[in-house]
Write a structure and sequence with these properties.
This protein is α+β, with helices and mostly antiparallel strands.
Length: 258
């Protein structure tokens, strides 16, 4: 209630009142008398109790001291039907929107620039990752997408550049450099040409399985004495054709009867 009365008297919004700096004293007190604070409910209750004690004998006048409010209210409520509690500042809103759009465009451009400056796999120690190295400490930090966006936003508002990010990395979260593989693994000697499978047994050339040639039955070719003789060919009139010679088989011929 007190804040509302003070805001209507000035006038200004209640939110702009410096309540924590309210001070008061009675009007009949000397000018150099100390003032009392009304910073919270306890201070306000003390003020009410002091007024009650004095109000039984005489009129009480209180002087309230406070700094100048941060902003006065020019458009206070006068009871008119055309009153707007919080009018919209169109010019200011347009400026805010334009500023946000500009920052958004700068942030997108900064993200592209950071991805080009620090590509994936830019350090051989951490293949497949986007890494930034602190030149002062020599520590490595992974540029996850979230850190890239934060860095790009800082560049967009002019608080960082491509060489160093804002203070978003902690040495506790630095990447551990992998140990070199040469010191932990014994060298492997390639096998020589005269290597042995077993002691005293030299390496042999590869042996492929043997598959005998497949022949069709009754192959009557020269040089195959085991070939079977086919049955005689008979013609019209029970005539027999002359058979070709076969090795190891007596030559027999049938002639037509004259």
């Amino acid at each position: 209630m007190l804040q509302r009365k003070v805001a209507n008297t000035l006038p200004c919004h209640e939110a702009f009142l410096p309540v924590s700096q309210f001070e008061w004293k009675f009007d009949d007190e000397p000018r150099g008398a100390p003032r009392k604070r009304i910073a919270d409910d306890v201070g306000f209750e003390a003020l009410v109790e002091a007024v009650k004690k004095r109000g039984t004998t005489r009129n009480v006048v209180i002087r309230l001291h406070l700094p100048t409010p941060t902003q006065y209210e020019d458009n206070r409520d006068t009871g008119s039907s055309h009153h707007v509690e919080d009018p919209l500042d169109f010019a200011g809103e347009r400026d805010v929107i334009s500023n946000k759009e500009l920052i958004t465009e700068k942030r997108r451009a900064a993200i592209i620039a950071l991805e080009l400056e620090y590509p994936v796999g830019n350090t051989q120690l951490f293949g497949g990752k986007r890494v930034w190295q602190n030149k002062t400490t020599g520590s490595y930090f992974e540029l996850a997408p979230m850190y890239v966006k934060i860095w790009a936003h800082a560049i967009a508002i002019g608080k960082a550049d491509l060489s160093a990010p804002p203070p978003i990395f902690d040495e506790v979260n630095r990447m551990k450099v992998p140990a070199p593989m040469a010191g932990t693994q014994a060298p492997v000697t390639p096998p020589t040409a005269d290597a042995h499978l077993f002691p005293g047994y030299p390496q042999q050339p590869p042996h492929y399985p043997y598959y005998p040639p497949q022949y069709q039955p009754y192959m009557f070719l020269p040089g195959y004495p085991y070939a079977c003789v086919p049955p005689p060919l008979s013609g019209p009139g029970d005539h027999y054709a002359t058979l070709p010679p076969f090795p190891g088989i007596a030559r027999t011929a049938h002639y037509d009867a004259e």
